[in-house]
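[job 4471] stage=fold_predict status=RUNNING
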Amino acid sequence: MTVSRLSAVALGAGLLLSGCTFVEDTLWPSLSGEDPSGAAPQARSEAPPPSAARPGAAPPQIGTTTFEPTGVTPGSPTGTFVGKKVIDLRNELSRLQDAISAHNNLLQELRAKVVEDSQRYHGTVAAINSRLQVGTTPGNPILVQQFNSSQADLDRLAGDVAEMNKLQTAVASDSTMASFLAESTRAAFGVSGAVDEDHRQLAILQDEVDRTNVLVDRLHQELTEDIRRQTNYVATERGNLNLLSSGIRTGEIYGASLLNQAVVSASGGVPPSRPVGMDTTGRQPLVVVRFDRPDVPYQQALYNAVSRVLDRRPNAVFDLVAVAPSAGGPARVALNSNKVRRNAESVLRALIDMGLPPSRVAVSAKTSDTAKANEVHLYLW
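[job 4471] inference complete, writing structure tokens
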């Protein structure tokens, strides 16, 4: 029986995008044992790819503008109908500015809370990553407790975003009111029976309404940007926390979620469709996991290999093939086939935990007269 290990095999030099071939100029690290081709074993690599961002990377910048209205200029009654209209509009503008001031205060409070919750979250995640980086036991209960705390911190950030969404609804009402006042002030100039003082006060009021309109539009725009950035950030960190959970279970440090990494690299795009029943005969696997003993530690090398592929081909899709030895008679082949299918399911679950969408992986099975033990092969389609 050969020593159990995982091998990730290079296919040559350079990157070829023609057809379905991926060629990497770096030999993927082997955990232990010999290379499937018979080459000497390589030393295990602990470090994830340099491009892989750690969970808890710096949060997006949040707005810093303060939106405080300048106030409303008082006026004297003129006794005309238009003069009364000016008083009403001035009172409406004063109430609107009070609302804007209150909403601005709430926004500043929410921003401060976002910063506080972000700092707490990043401190917890940094502590977990630091421990994983120097090495720890699988399922370390201290890290599990810290992970639960980081989840609670991220939930608080999500709650902050929800409060911002509520505030955005209120600010949208402010914007509607500001537009109404602008229209009403302009229309008041056309009402007959006004004196010169009415138009003078209307001109002052119109300037203040216009400035208020600009202020509330800027408030709405900056709040919308805050919500967009924080929403995307929370979603990204949830994916990264899922991968961090896998790292805690195995005692390994990975990097960013594979899905987040692919999205950042691709900036859009749809993975190509794969023909059903893709034949892997004659193709070189990207990763080979040989299951000839329990608890093969393949996760780190698997993450490294797939992460580097996604760096270069963000829309890549994969074939996961369970390979059972064909020697030993029908009963032995059937037993091995059942075991290797379960092995392939474990590898698939690991990829999903790392953030790779299930739609990116097709799973199949076959027997091989060259396989010495149950193996799972990962191909780049």
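[job 4471] summary: The mean pLDDT is 80.
[job 4471] exit 0
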